[in-house]
């Protein structure tokens, strides 16, 4: 799906405007970026594609990010995929819960382009070790 030069990232966020901005930031940074604007769309996409990383919003109306992360970690093909959680919930309990579920990085909204790229690169590097 991806090359070493252009890692593939799946952005999962129900906010169409925000996911478009994130896609623009990541594409400009050299990543191949795909967007899913619902939890079900993300699960469907993951069933047939293998990104190098998933950028995952927690609060979505259909299937929330916690459920998606749980399903990813229980599924052999997606078990080891790096996941950067992106959420407006900045509390420690949410951070701890996503870490215990296997998230690699935690990023709070509103996003900062440099911070987003740093978190993505860190998560990718961490999984390559």
Q: Secondary-structure map with pairings?
A:
Layout: E1 8-12, H1 16-28, E2 32-36, H2 39-48, E3 53-57, H3 65-74, E4 83-87, H4 92-100, E5 105-108, H5 113-128
Parallel strand pairs: 1-2, 1-3, 3-4, 4-5
Question: Can you describe what's shown?
Answer:
With 129 residues, this protein is α/β, with parallel strands linked by helices. It has one domain: Rossmann fold. It is 45% helix and 19% strand. It has helices spanning 16-28, 39-48, 65-74, 92-100, 113-128; strands spanning 8-12, 32-36, 53-57, 83-87, 105-108. Strands 2-1-3-4-5 form a five-stranded parallel beta sheet, sandwiched between helices. Helix 4 links the parallel strand 4 and strand 5. The longest helix has 16 residues, at 113-128.
Question: Can you give me a brief rundown of this structure?
Answer:
The protein has 129 residues and is an alpha/beta fold. It has helices at residues 16-28, 39-48, 65-74, 92-100, 113-128, and strands at residues 8-12, 32-36, 53-57, 83-87, 105-108. 33% of the residues are buried.
Low-confidence stretches: none
DSSP, total strands: 5
- Tell me the structural class: alpha/beta
* CATH fold-level topology: Rossmann fold
Q: Mean pLDDT, rounded to whole units?
A: 93
Number of structural domains? 1
Strand content: 15-25%
CATH superfamily: Response regulator
Q: Approximately how much helix is present in the residues?
A: 40-55%
- SS element count, helices: 5
